[in-house]
Amino acid sequence: MRKLLIAALCLAATATGCGATVEPQADAESKSTAVTLTNCGRKVTYDKVPERVVTNDVGITELMFALGLEDRMAGFAMPDDKGDLTDVPWKDGYQKVKWLSKDQLTKENVLDAHADLVFAGWNYGFREDSGFTPDALKKLGIPTYTLTESCHNGRTETSRGIMPPLDALYEDLTNLGKLFGVQKRAAALIAGFKKQIAEVKTKAPARHPKVFLYDSGQDQPFTSGRYAAPDQIISAAGGENVMHDLPDSWTTVGWESVVERDPDVIVICDYGDVSAEQKRKFLLSYAPLRNVSAVKHRRIFVLDYVDLVESPRNPSAIARLGAYLRG
pTM above the 0.90 mark? Predict the structure, then answer.
C-alpha cells in the first residue's frame, strides 16, 4: 500500500520531486519584483521572494515540499505524533529542512531562524491567546501567509473556512507558485490532483454512504464541518459528511447529533497520544453509539492526520476512502 501511495503521488506531482524534472528556481530579476496575492480575502504584497520560510504543521510543510521549495525553507515546527515521515514522497525535504520545534511555532523560533516568511494557519500555528498572529509578526518585520483552509470567515470570532477545502488547496498551491516563481510546478500538481480525484468520482456508488469524521474527544467529539478538508474528501470519495451543515472547519459537536444522523461509516483521524485502535475500541464500546449503523456493522476506516488537513496528500486520501466506501 505504501508503494502504491508513493507511486500515485509521484504521478500527481510530475513537475516536482520523485526524480522528475523541475523548472528552475526564480531568476534574479523575479527576486527583486514585488508579488501581490489574495490571502484570506485580502490583498497582500510581498516585496521579494522569501528565502528563509518557516512553516507550522505537517500539511503546510508538505505543500512547500510538494512544490520543491525545501531550499527556500529555514525550518518547520510540528509535534512528532504525525506518523512515519521516512516513507513519504517528500522524505528528502524532511531530511534537508531543520525541525525547529516539536510544538507550535513561537516568535523566538521564528527570530532564531531569521525567517523572512511564516507560513501557518489559524489553529495551525497562528493563535490569539499567545499573541502569535500575522499582525504581531508584521510588527517584527516578518511577512506571513495564512493557510486558506484556516481563514476566519467572519461568522463568529473563531469560525474558519472561506471556500470548499479542495479549492483552498488549489488556491494555496497557485499562490505559492506565483510567489516563488514556480507556477508550472503548481499547475502540474493541481492538474494531477484534479485528474486523480475525477477518476475516483467516476466510481462513486449510486447511494452515497453517510460518513462521520471522528478526530478525538469522549465527552464531545471533535469533527469536521463543511469548510475543513474532510468534508470534501468524503464527498469526492463518494460519501456524505453528516456534519456538512456546520458552517465551520474543525469543531466540536454533541454525540446526540451523531446518533441522530446515523452514519454508515466512521472515519478516524489518526494522530496524537490516543492511537487509532484505542479510538476504534472506544467507538465500538460507547453505549450511546450502539445502534448507529457504522458501529453495528463495524464500518470504521482510518486515515492519517495529514490526509485530513489541507495538504498534498488529500487526493490520495480520497482514492483510498473511495475504495473503502465502494467495498
Answer: no
